[in-house]
Each structure stands twice: as structure tokens, then as C-alpha cells.
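hey team, just a heads up i'm posting the complex here instead of the shared drive bc the drive is being weird again. everything in one block, sequence lines first with there labels, then the predicted structure for the whole assembly after. its two chains so it's a bit long, scroll down
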Amino acid sequence: MRKLLLPLALMLGFTTPAVADYTMIVPQKPGGGTSQWAQIVATEMEKYLDGEKIVLKHIRGARDIPGFNKFHNKLRFDDKTIMVSNGGNGVAFLQEAVDYNYKDYDSVGLMNLNIITAVYGDHNPNTDRTSFSGGGGKVPEGIAMTLLKCGNLPNTEAYVGCFKEKVNWIKGMKGNERRLAFKRGELNGTRENPASFKKHVQPVIDKGEARLWFHHGILQPDGSHADDPNYPGIQMEVQFNEIHGAMPKGDLADAYKLVKSFRDGLQKALWVNKGNPNRAKLVAALEQVSKNPESIKKIQKKVGKYEWMLGDAGNAQVDTLMKFVTADALKTLVEFNTQAFGLKSVFKPELVK
Amino acid sequence: MVAYLLGGVFYGLLIGIIPSAGATTGLVALFGFISYFAHEPYMGVIFLMAVVAASTTGDSFTAILLGIPGANSAAATMVDGFPLAQRGRAGYAISAAVTTSTVNGLLWGCLVFLLLPWYTNLIYILGVPELWAFVALAFATVGFLTNQFWFRTVLAIAFGIFVGLVGVNPDNNEARFGAQYWFYLEDGIQIMAVAAGLFAIPELTRGLFLKHSTADGEIREGELWAGMKASWDNRWLALRGGFIGAFIGLLPGLGGQMADWMAYGQAVASNPNEKFGNGNIKGVIGPEGANNAQKATSMITTVIFGIPGAKFAAILMSLFMYLNIELGTPDIAEDTELFKSMTFGFLGATVVVAFICMFLIKPISKLAAVPYKYYFPVLLALIIFTSMQYTGGWEDLAMLAVFSCIGFTMRHYKFSRPAMLIGYILAEKVEGLTLQLTGLYTVETLITRPIFMSLIFCIIGILIYSILRKGRIDYA
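-- predicted structure starts here --
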């Protein structure tokens, strides 16, 4: 049947899950950032899979959770299914009632990314109130700027008060609206992933109207965060030290490290079920992709110049991330989310076990 | 590229000549297939623009030959077009309609699509307050200018906004408006079910019950030339129709029949000594000047601000999202390929469909005469397939059933369905812009913004005018 269907599908110019060798589950609708990234990676991986095809299946839903839950509960037991996840899934894993659990899967590969922020030239973020686009995806930026502006404070309540005083957290802005509002000068601070930063914010900096603020650093295998070679010298902790004469410490600093690591450390990732017999083949294909300059150029255009962590290195990344999960950090994250950002969050004690 | 253009032209023409179908239904049916253009999004743009341009011309055939418009947009053409066809002058009427529609489509298409890159600079000039006021203006025009039952239209807009806000509250990530009880709704109610239920299903079903007599479809020698000549002889009438269509298309959220009827009205008013409704060619040329021009200009607000100029544009905007193209964003301003594709798709299709209609007028006339019962099951299957693209489960069908019931009810009780669709499409934008407006501005800073204040005065003017006005026509 498949032999009959394949030529028909090719004749029609498309491939369907019925005739595909692998199905890549994308937890969002076509057109989303992760979906675009997955399409590029799938197309490039196919070149090294001996004629086998990968087809994207979009299982979308609120905050990209339903698709990942369905993979966890049902789809992962099919050896031909690959899950695509993003940083939002990492954050939701920490603070929402989701079914999925990274420890149940093997990594095919993941990209460890970073987020860069900028402010307008005449705006002093240390003293002025900063208008910044808020929302669930910007929790690490919100906490980072609170720490930078307020220094080390005794408790979460003090941080919440300081945040409300020094940050104008604008809700209801989508990515493109944020970019426009920053270009028009309505926001005096913004954030982007490296590729988007280069496209939308760097031109404003080049004109002398804006300047770099901070980035989160890049997660290292030993659990530390290294400076980003693309934007050296502005890592949050380094700036904090320069402004306040000490390193950030306390529960909010731990919560910040936790949430930024789960978002940026798992920004774009591919997973299969534990023990999937096809994993080695998929990892090998992805390794070939990572060595092909043409392929890498296409991927970097979307997300910026960052390295792949392949196979077991991806599993090790999850082990590293889980070391940051402590009861105090989780509780503080939930508390700050709720009180400062007004976001619905739940404390998940099972993550600490 | 040409293949996609021709594909769009043939699909658009076919959907245009099917009674009661038209551009909106034709575009809704494409949700099931649009992701196949994901690898070549600009080819998808060409295809979609060709569908829009071709369906506008195609629906003149059914209006003239069958006395029923392919879509509501050809209803005004029908008034004088069908009597002409009954007198054996179908070729004359179709030729005049196609010529007028094509000339205005090209004229306004050039002004819109070739200059779109320049217009997009507006997105850097207008800020959050102006965009918020522009959305409010869209609601005011839809609510108070298109329908004699303005209170029902306001309710329809409010219901559309409510439906559009079902899902997760962006303010706090909490599920709301039913989504907290049914996980399926957490990602919002999908446009496929809303658009198909509100428009496609009721219109397709209506087609089954339409009584019509087929006019003499014989195309006689010399009629095509006579039609083109009539169009030239009435060129100022045609251009005035185009101007009316272009103006209505520019106003956010209007579009549709309003431009056609206003153009028909100006044809009647400017010829007080002539009889209309019995086969006056000027009654064909007037509205046909408006429909393509309106389609072109309604793309301006749609592309620049992401505020749909008409209901077809609302569907088009959502289809573009599947091609990774989000209208009303800064990416658009730099996307020269998008402008080229839109220009090529719309203008190319306008020319190609004109040639097809002129040279293949006889077979197309025969196609228009194919009994509707043969089209109905195919279109219905397409719409159901499309509506099941979200989860593929029973929930998709349930939502289609719910919105079909709502669509039938609204049509029966004359609640404006386009108004509800526009409310639904703009709901997220309204909420987002309101949060941004209140977060970034105060009353003191708002009153210093001249464009914002001008738009607010326009809205107030529309409200006063509409409440005092009498004898409105129902365009919705």
C-alpha cells in the first residue's frame, strides 16, 4: 500500500504521515518559530537518512503543552516518532501541571541558546522605570532586570515591590508587536533571540539610538553559565557584580538560574522515547547536519550561531538542569510569577524528589 | 510560478461561478491544504491572491446567467445583468462586466500592490494608540454603517470578540470563557470552524433551496465586442464605480456588498432619465467597477495593520499565517518577495481570468448551468475536511456544528455574520492593544496625539451619523 501511496504523494507534491518513515511532532501550529526550525532540521536530516522521509505533525494547543503531553502519553511508544520541544515547554515543565517529563526520553540533539536584551540610549535601566514587553515567555528577563535594578534583597516580597516600582511590565504584546513598539520608541527595553536581535534590534543600536543591556549567558555542562561570544561582556551576573559589588544570591537568584536554564538550555530540542532503536541513526543524521556548513547556515539564520548538543550530551544537559531544581527555587519562582507578573503557576513538589 | 497562478485562477473561477459559494467559501475550503505550501510560501501567496481576483470575476457569470450571485458581491450586478441574459444578451452583459471589472482591478491593483512597500512605512509612524483607534474605527464602520439593524450588529461584534477571547488569558495564563472546563478550547476556537460554520455551511445549504431559471446562455456573434464597447462608452461610470469600491475597501472592516450597491446607486442616480432593473447595461457596469477595486484596496489595512478590510481578507490573513507570513508586522515591511508575489498573483490573475472569461465564455456558461446538486456534496466534503484540521477528532465536528447553527440563526434573524467574524478575528488584537494602551499611555499623553484624536472624532461622527440617519440599506 505504501508503495502505491508514495508515488502518488510525490506526484501531488507533498508527503503525508501515512507514507512517512518518521513523524516529527511539533507542539504548535504551522508558522510558529519552533515549527519553522523543525521544518528546516527535518529537511536537512532527510539527506542523511538513506531516502527515509520525515513529516511534521502539528499537535498544537495552549502554550505548546498538549502536543508534548500527547507524545508522552501515547506517541512516544512508536519508534518512528520524534518530539520537537522548545524553551516554553521547559518553563511550563517547572511551573505548570504537565504530563511530560524529560527524564523519560532520550535526546537526539538540542540547541543551547541565549536571549539578548537592549535599551534605548537615553534610558538608564538602573535608575529609570523600564517599559518592557511582559508575558510568560519573558519570566527570566523579568527576574533578571529585577535583580539588576534592585540588588540582593531579603525576601521575595521586597523583590515584588521593587519590580512593580521599577518595571512597567506591558502585557498583551506579541513578538512582532514588541519589535514594532521598540522601533517606535514606545518600549524603552526589549529582548530577542540572537537571530532576531541581529535583524530587529542591532540596526537600532547601529544607528546609535539603543545599546546592549544584558544576556543570560550560555549553560555549560558543569552547570555554570559562560559569557556569550556573540555579545561578550554583558552577562547578567557580570553586570550585577559591577553594579552592586557582589554576585546575585538568595532564592530569587536561584529561581532565575533555574528558569533561564530550563528555557534557554532546552530552547530547541529533539527527543525520542527511552531505548528507541532508531535513536542512533537519527543522532548520526543530525551529526552530519551539524557538520554541513550549508545546513548549519540555514539553521543559524533562524536561531543564531549556537552549537548542537548531540545524543548523550543532550541527556547530560537534562541531568545538569535537574540539579537546579530545589524546593526553595521552585517555590520562589511560583511566588514571584504570581505576585509580580500575575501569572498562573503551580508548585510541583514531585520535581524535587 | 505561472502554474500556481493558473491553479489559483481556475480554482477561483470555479468557486466564483458556483452559486452561493464565492471567495470566502473558496478560501475557507483551502485551510485543509494550505500547509502544503509551507515549503514555498510565496507560491501560496500567488495562489491565494489569484483565487481572490478570479472568484470576483467568476461570480458575475452566475449573477447574469442564473439570476443568483456566486457570492453576495455580485448581487448588484444581477439586477440588470439577469434581465439582459433573459433577452438573449448574456454575452453582452458578461463582456461588459468582465471588461469593467478587469480595468478597475488593474488600475486599483497597481495603485495598491505596487505602492504597498511605501504604505508599510506607516507601521513605524502609527503607534499603539493609533492602532487601537483604528481597530475601534473598524468596529464602528462595521457596526453602524453596514447594517440597518445596528444594535444587532453591535451584538454580533461583541459575540465575535467573546468567541475570539475563549482560551487562555494572556494577562495571567489562566484558561477562561469555558476553556477551564474543556481543554480543547485552551488554544482558542479555531477559525476553520468559525468561518465554515458562519458562512460556508449556511451559504452552501442555501444554494440547495435557491429557485432560479436559467437564462438564455447562448453567446451571439458580436456580443463580446459590444460589451467591451459599452464599457468604454460608460468609462466614467465604470471609473466612478471603481473609485467608490476603492474608498469602501480602504475603510477597515467594510468591504463586501456595500461598495457594489453604492456603485449601483450612483449609476442610477447619475442617469435619472433611464430605467434600471430591466436590463440596463449601466446597471452592470456601475457595480462591476466597484468589486475588484474594493478587493484590491481592502488589502491595504489588512497587510499594513493586520486589520482585515473585508471578510475575505480576514480569512486570507489567517491563511497567510499558515505560510509563516504575519500581516501587520515589521517583517512585512522588509519582505519584498511578498509584495512581488501579491502583485503578480492579483494583477496576473486579473488579466488571465479576463482572457479566460472572454475566450472560454461558452464553456464557462455551460459550467455555470451545471445543477448545484452536483457541486454541493463536493464542497460540503471539502468544508468538513477543512474543519477537521485542528485535532481531527469529534470536537472539530462539534464546533463546526455549533457554529453552523449560529450561522443559520444569525442569517435568519439578520445579525451581521461579517461583523461577528471581524470581531472574532480582531478580538486578540483588541485585548492586546488595550493592555498595551493602558500600560504605556495616560489620558494626558493620548490627547496630544493628533492622529489618535482624529480617529476618535471620526468614530464619534460615525456613531452620531448612524443614529440620526434613516432609510439605511442592509449590506450585511
